[in-house]
User: What shape does this take?
Amino acid sequence: MLFLHPIKALSFNIIYLIILILMELKTLEEIDIQLAPTSKINEVDFDNLTFGTTFTDHMLVCDFADGEWKKPVIQPYAPMTIDPSAKVFHYGQAIFEGMKAYKDANDAVWLFRPDQNFERFNKSAVRMAMPEVPKEVFLGGLKRLLEIEKDWVKKGLGNSLYIRPFMIATGPGVIAAPAKFYRFMIILSPAKAYYSGEVKVLIAEQYSRAANGGIGAAKAAGNYAAQFYPTQLANEQGFQQVIWTDDATHTKLEEAGTMNVFIRINDTLFTAPTSERILDGVTRKSVIELAKRENIAVEERSVLVTELVEAAKNGNLKEIFGAGTAAVINPIAGFSYKGDYFELPKVSDSFATDIKTKLTNIQNKLAEDTFGWTVKI
Ligand code: COI
Assistant: This one.
């Protein structure tokens, strides 16, 4: 044990106090808050929300210039001016995250595993040659923004405030090289379900979402844009999503773009292992941990399309579901492969339903969070 002379102990305490005061001042100085004169919250029909179309009154903006992050600003949500030659428009230097805030019965606001999103965001930043965002800006800024917008987080299962942190290259010049200027932002959108109804999927035979050595594991904007065209083709045939297969052989099932995919064959859950091609989903890893706690066998391995078709034919395929922040857990009603459509059975002991209930109860503070996943704002 360390014993200090009383004078030394006193000066130690004074220094500690000064450090605390400086930290407090620093926090106050580090965020500029400009409040909107009026709120549009009373114009919003919270019972009829279309995902990602309504935004709260404020947004967080933080610019990167001269090799450093500047003071973040919380300001009224509004369009902004960006140079037409900014690299984001020409070379797609853009990344994002998806998170959600929930309100408990006592009106406290909670985040779900926010550190995971923060870490993944900076991994995406590194992969896209963008500057990493400091934790104080990402998580500290989000906390301040949520404190201001807490009335937009509605209580009750199925309600949440979707959080969209993102970063774009604002630096001008059409030279194909990383920008020198960036903007990190957080916008918030009250949300209910992502998909309105059952999801039928098409198994990819020609197009790919990601390739080894590419950016599939990053939450890069371009990963999503690249899916739009093949997904449009699938939509025209009556399918809401595509389940991507590996780019080299199109024989292994991967992810569904807005969701990681879980396949239940008999009583085992399979999901593709994370790799350079698969997003390390926060909901994905939570589903795995919850399933293991329920003694459900989980295997992180690629399922072959032939295995899936075989299991569907012989009755061993019980469920397919997607897992993601926006979609939460979404059962898949059926899939199509090489022109054949396979309808999934309606099982009475659905893993998707059970895991979704357990997960959303934790997120909404309706069940004890033994994992320590929820963080109070
Ligand atoms: C999310 O689940 O947050 C996502 O990033 C999917 C998005 C494309 C809505």
Q: What stands out?
A: The first helix runs from residue 6 to 30. The mean pLDDT is 92. Helices lie at 6-30, 87-91, 114-127, 135-148, 221-236, 282-293, 305-314, 351-363.
